[in-house]
């Protein structure tokens, strides 16, 4: 059987991050549901989604493009988590844990992208 994007550790970690993000954001203020909550969730979901789509493409060039999008989503998420933290929606310890996982994923995406060239 061929390897799947599901076998990639970076994809697995990104799925863990999405799960953590959903658990945390369900406690955000209700008036943020269509604002910061939605933005954070979309950025987080974009990471494993683009890794998966890129892995299913026919060329390493296309994979690289989707990895670039996933990497960009990591940067978006970094900004949004910082905003949430500054607004008091995330406790410092929770913020640090989420951002640490996000950083790890970002580095893995960058390394995977670099390995394609």
From TrEMBL:
A Pfam family assignment: 23S_rRNA_IVP
Gene3D superfamilies from the UniProt entry: 23S rRNA-intervening sequence
Source organism superkingdom: Bacteria
PANTHER family per the UniProt record, alphabetical: FOUR HELIX BUNDLE PROTEIN
Name the record gives this protein: Four helix bundle protein
Organism per entry: Candidatus Wirthbacteria bacterium CG2_30_54_11
């Amino acid at each position: 059987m061929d390897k799947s994007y599901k076998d990639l550790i970076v994809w697995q970690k990104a799925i863990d991050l999405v799960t953590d993000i959903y658990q945390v954001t369900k406690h955000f203020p209700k008036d943020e549901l269509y604002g910061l909550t939605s933005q954070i969730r979309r950025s987080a979901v974009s990471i494993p989604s683009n890794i998966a789509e890129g892995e299913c493409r026919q060329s390493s060039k296309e994979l690289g493009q989707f990895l670039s999008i996933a990497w960009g989503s990591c940067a978006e998420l970094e900004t949004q988590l910082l905003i949430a933290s500054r607004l008091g929606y995330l406790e410092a310890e929770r913020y640090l844990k989420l951002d640490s996982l996000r950083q790890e994923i970002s580095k893995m995406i960058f390394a995977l992208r670099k390995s394609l060239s």
